[in-house]
Amino acid sequence: MILSGLLILWIGSYSSLDLTLADAMFDRASGTFPWRHAWLAEGFNHGILKTILQILAVMAVSLAVWDWARPRPTWDVSRRTGVRVLALSAILVPTTISVLKHFSDSHCPWDLQRYGGREPYVRLLEMLPAGVAPGQCLPAGHASSALWLLALAVFWLPHRPRMAAAVGGAMLLFGLAVGWMQQLRGAHFLTHTLWSIWIAVFIVDFLYNVLRPAERRAELA
Fold it and tell me: At residue 100, does pLDDT exceed 60?
């Protein structure tokens, strides 16, 4: 986790990858991001899909609350742990990312002077120029609507680690795809999405390691 975080920090602070990708998505002739209002990116990804994922999150939380109030006799401890990690991830991943955005100086690409906006481009470790308001665009909020699904991998832990890795990898790719659509629109840089992924992985891992001891105690009882 530390090495991956340092890598993302390096990409955002010392490389031009964010700008290179955003430049490729920006049409200089029209002065716009062509995908900004495309139905697939805006109507589906930012509208329909986000609503579906929010409904799934509510269902996951409701299921966990239902089992907490009236424990399901057919559920083993491992499944109960999975449900609780999934429900807590559905709450904490989007909430944490949303809170962190409010403390971020970074602006979205479509707000930058480079892409027809009014704000200067400032790297993560740089100070904002005087008079420039914080952009509050990092980490990527929309990607978080999908990244809590990473917690699905917990249902196969610890007995089927390969399956857990496959499910976790698939959910990370799904979250990356959701974030990528926002990048096509000019709403985020790549590192914005990568930081959201890093935060989601950290939260799910933390929750599992907190709840796993309780599972072990129940197995030994």
Answer: yes
